[in-house]
Automatic annotation (TrEMBL):
InterPro entries for this protein: DUF433 (IPR007367), Homeodomain-like_sf (IPR009057), WH-like_DNA-bd_sf (IPR036388)
Pfam families (alphabetical): DUF433
SUPFAM superfamilies per UniProt: Homeodomain-like (SSF46689)
Transmembrane segments: none
Coiled coil: 63-90
Name of protein: DUF433 domain-containing protein
Keywords: Coiled coil
Taxonomic source organism: Halonotius roseus
Length: 92
């Protein structure tokens, strides 16, 4: 079993596969949202298949936390977009 860890200095404290900067949400987005083959994702990240499945298990076992992290990420993306648009407007 591969450990899923959190470290405030890595990926803003999002749960990651131990020894990597690959977050549980990175795996979820590719395998679940993107409908990619888990073993292909594992190969691209130089992981074994178990690490990908452990990340997915963590995602489902901690669904409330994961939904909150996804909402936070969406909010950060929107804030960045708004700031980018504001700066662009200032420059034109």
């Amino acid at each position: 079993m591969v450990a899923i860890v959190t470290d405030s200095d890595i990926r803003s404290g999002d749960p990651c596969i131990e020894g990597t900067r690959i977050s549980v949400l990175d795996i979820k987005r590719r395998v679940i949202d993107g409908d990619e083959d888990p073993f292909a994702v594992a190969a691209e990240y130089d992981l074994d298949g178990a690490a990908v499945f452990d990340a997915l298990a963590y995602y489902y076992d901690n669904a409330d936390e994961m939904r909150e992290l996804e909402a936070d990420a969406a909010e950060r993306r929107q804030a960045i977009k708004r700031e980018s648009e504001r700066l662009r407007a200032e420059l034109t």
